[in-house]
Amino acid sequence: MSDSRTIENAGSNPEAPLLWLVTDGKTGHENQTRALAENLQALAPFRIHEGGTSMGGLLQSKERASLVIGTGHRTHLALLAAARRFDCPSVVIMKPTIPTVFFDLCFIPEHDLGRPPGPNVVPTKGMLNRVPVESPPKQERGLILVGGPSRHHGFEAEPLMAIIRKILADRTGLAWDLTDSRRTPEEFREHLGKLDLQFHPSTECPDDWLLDALLAAREIWVTEDSMSMIYEALTARARVGLLPMPRKSNRSRVARSVDRLVREGWTCFPDARASSELTAPPAVLHEASRCAREVLQRFPALA
Fold it and tell me: What is the Cα gyration radius of the chain?
């Protein structure tokens, strides 16, 4: 991605510190980077510049960034080059493919940490997301989020449909929506017309539909392969249940992360709670705002 732009807030000070975001064109990575930047912007009068991984815009920039942030291995070299060019701290999100000591601060999901973290590594509970800190009152709505086959999971449509039918039958007081992902097999979509819910194909949803649905839903069920959606649902302060998917291994980092969430009471599988109301998460989860506070604590000159 080579596009480069500076985002000015209404009433922003042109002399305010600049956050330089190194982006790679992948929506999931860019959402995590923006989540941290937006939460930093909520705490201090930052401006935000979005740049790609090419060095052209970086070398030609006449502005000096105060902090550089990136997510994904394609951003790492440009991130380090930007930090050197601007003589400012570097922040990397997700586990980097080069040693963490090269970065000033690393936010890495706890399930990706194979050893005790170093002093510049902050473990996170899952991935950062752009769910806002303040949530509106919940509505009498339920949401089902379906992923698909992955490196860690298979997919079986009939067992999944049976569980969804039971959930709908046990929770008639909620109006249900369901959306899928690019990984969802077509064979599953063909069965959805028989269910008492509204199906919203992910390829047809407006950009803000999922966020609005997450914030509105009192109860959300997510297929266990969809780690980012699980943490988005928890961040939205919903009661969250897991739809089981065939595991290729119980030792995979995704399986271990899911099992840890269950043990800690954040979520559960339907065999434990399918016919009773899901419990609320044990605490408020908002990692993007926590990480933003951590950045300002580590680098107080930014505030």
Answer: 20
Q: Where are the alpha helices (DSSP H) in 221-286?
A: 227-235, 253-263, 270-273
Three-class DSSP category at 231: helix
| Per-residue model confidence (pLDDT) at position 1 | 38
Can you give the pTM of this predicted structure? 0.90
Going from the C-alpha of 37 to that of each of 41, 48, 49, 270, 281, the distances in angstroms are 6, 7, 10, 36, 26
When pLDDT is cut at 50, 70 and 90, the band that residue 11 belongs to is: very low
What are the residues whose beta carbons fall under 8 Å from the beta carbon of 89, sequence distance 6 or more?
A: 67, 68, 83, 104, 105, 298, 299
Q: How far is CA 200 from the centre of its chain?
A: 20
DSSP, collapsed to helix, strand or coil, labels residue 300 as helix
243-to-4, 33, 226, 286, 295 alpha-carbon distances in Å: 40, 28, 10, 23, 35
User: CATH: 3.40.50.720, 3.40.50.1950, 2.60.40.1640, 3.10.580.10. Which one for 141-273?
Assistant: 3.40.50.1950
Domain regions of the chain by residue span:
5-131+287-302, 141-273
CA-to-CA separations, 122 to 56, 109, 224, 288, in angstroms, rounded: 31, 8, 25, 12
- The whole-number pLDDT of residue 6 equals 54
Classify domain 5-131+287-302 at the CATH topology level: Rossmann fold (3.40.50)
CA 209 to chain centre: 16
Domains 5-131+287-302 and 141-273 share a fold: yes
266 touches 239 (CB < 8 A): no
State the pLDDT at residue 3: 53
| Partner residues linked to 259 by β-bridges | none
Amino acid 116: pLDDT: 84
Per-residue pLDDT of 255-271, as tens digits, reads 999 999 999 999 999 87
* Tokens at 16, concatenated: 């305010």
